[in-house]
């Protein structure tokens, strides 16, 4: 079957308040969100859902559904991110987290890495006072105070470089971000990849906290408490890149196998925490041990945190991540000590 995906940018322009609009016609916002990120393939969705979305966007089904187009991935060389929720170049990325789970550290690290790849980094300050944003200001090329200034700087820098534009959810709620993204459609510039964060932490309680997204990064309190950084949830985070027509199928297969293992590992871990290893069947010990190793492997030292952790930052090419994860899944790393996986680059 020809690859199909939703025209997320069109939905974003036509239906800014998609959560309310979806509920008003009987659609579950979570279903709409999963369709946008590709977690639910368009080919498996109900026709009535697609018709309802087309009606909301006041467009035809041909306009709503893109056929055979792939979404280009920005390879960050951050293992868990590239494997489970690749950044869609030119798309919108939502960071969904409570305060204190490390979203600003991840964002600062992305700024650091992508700047070295030639991207221009623009940061729009939040409307309210959030001193914690100062932690990542130094990693941006330009810091602006208004939507108008953001537009001017993006157009100026975007004539030569791809742009990473970042804003707080406060600007999403006013509708300013959607208007700005629509303006970008009408000027001749390089790609603009938008990162949206939520400094208040209320996005966790919303089905569609930012409207339609190409990539959704959910941060996990359990991983953060156990210092398994970056604390990006590998099961809930997702990306439309994984539904791309030209995606390496090896990537998709390994990603799905890894998610399945980690999902079961989390279930077993909750039992082990109460009853110990003797509380799970002997037939599940292999699954538990491999899940434990995979979770540890997905930790990674960051360059911007070197002075705090004492560990040198590591970059891992996607091909190496896929190879290492496949080895863990297939049991080739069963004999390795668990500590040898924690905060490393590639195996």
From TrEMBL:
Keyword annotations of the record: ATP synthesis, ATP-binding, CF(1), Ion transport, Membrane, Nucleotide-binding, Translocase, Transport
Subcellular location: Membrane
SUPFAM superfamilies, per database record: C-terminal domain of alpha and beta subunits of F1 ATP synthase (SSF47917), P-loop containing nucleoside triphosphate hydrolases (SSF52540)
InterPro entries (UniProt xref): ATPase_a/bsu_AS, ATPase_alpha/beta_chains, ATPase_F1/V1_b/a_C, P-loop_NTPase
Recorded coiled-coil stretches: none
Family to which this protein belongs: Belongs to the ATPase alpha/beta chains family.
Stated name of the protein: F-type H+-transporting ATPase subunit beta
Source organism of the structure: Heyndrickxia acidicola
């Amino acid at each position: 079957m020809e690859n199909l995906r939703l025209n997320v940018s069109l939905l974003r322009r036509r239906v800014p308040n998609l959560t309310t609009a979806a509920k008003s016609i009987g659609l579950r916002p979570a279903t709409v969100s999963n369709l946008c990120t590709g977690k639910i393939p368009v080919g498996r969705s109900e026709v009535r859902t697609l018709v309802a979305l087309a009606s909301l966007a006041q467009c035809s089904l041909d306009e709503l559904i893109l056929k055979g187009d792939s979404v280009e991935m920005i390879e960050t060389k951050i293992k868990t991110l590239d494997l489970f929720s690749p950044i869609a170049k030119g798309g919108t990325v939502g960071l969904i987290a409570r305060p204190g789970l490390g979203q600003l550290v991840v964002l600062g690290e992305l700024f650091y890495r992508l700047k070295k790849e030639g991207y221009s980094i623009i940061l729009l300050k939040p409307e309210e006072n959030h001193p914690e944003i100062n932690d990542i200001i130094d990693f941006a090329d330009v810091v602006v105070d208004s939507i108008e200034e953001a537009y001017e700087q993006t157009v100026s820098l975007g004539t030569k470089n791809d742009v990473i534009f970042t804003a707080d959810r406060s600007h999403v709620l006013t509708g300013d971000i959607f208007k700005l993204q629509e303006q970008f459609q009408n000027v001749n510039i390089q790609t603009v990849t938008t990162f949206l964060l939520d400094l208040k932490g209320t996005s966790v309680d919303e089905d569609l906290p930012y409207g339609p997204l190409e990539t959704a990064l959910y941060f996990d309190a359990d991983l953060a408490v156990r210092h398994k950084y970056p604390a990006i949830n590998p099961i809930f985070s997702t990306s439309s890149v994984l539904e791309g027509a030209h995606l390496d199928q090896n990537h998709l297969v390994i990603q799905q196998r890894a998610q399945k293992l980690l999902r079961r590992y989390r279930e077993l871990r909750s039992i082990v925490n109460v009853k110990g290893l003797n509380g799970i069947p002997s037939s599940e010990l292999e699954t538990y041990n491999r899940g434990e190793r995979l979770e540890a492997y997905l930790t990674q030292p960051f360059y911007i945190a070197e002075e705090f952790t004492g560990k040198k930052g590591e970059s891992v090419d996607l091909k190496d991540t896929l190879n290492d994860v496949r080895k863990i899944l297939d049991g080739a790393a069963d004999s390795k000590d668990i500590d040898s996986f924690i905060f490393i680059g590639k195996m």
